What we know:
Blueprint: H1 14-27, E1 30-32, H2 33-42, H3 49-61, E2 65-68, E3 73-76
Antiparallel strand pairs: 1-3, 2-3
Helix pairs in contact: 1-3
Amino acid sequence: MIRPDKHTNPALSVVQVAGIILTEIKQGEIIPYGDLLTTVDSQTPISIKEVFNYSLSFLYLLDKVEYIEDFDAIRMKS
Length: 78
């Protein structure tokens, strides 16, 4: 899923969507999960709802974002 092949749509790649997520998180301090999904989905020509959670997990594994359970929100890890 992360490694592209000849059938991969660049707009739906995990790395591309993760980059959009990082851009959005940098603009706001804490972003609710639903708002982040809506914002990122509106910036792509094709619906990325299938790839969104994989991209968020990818960023979490890289220790770039953290999940705030009390607010159901995401923020940049400092």
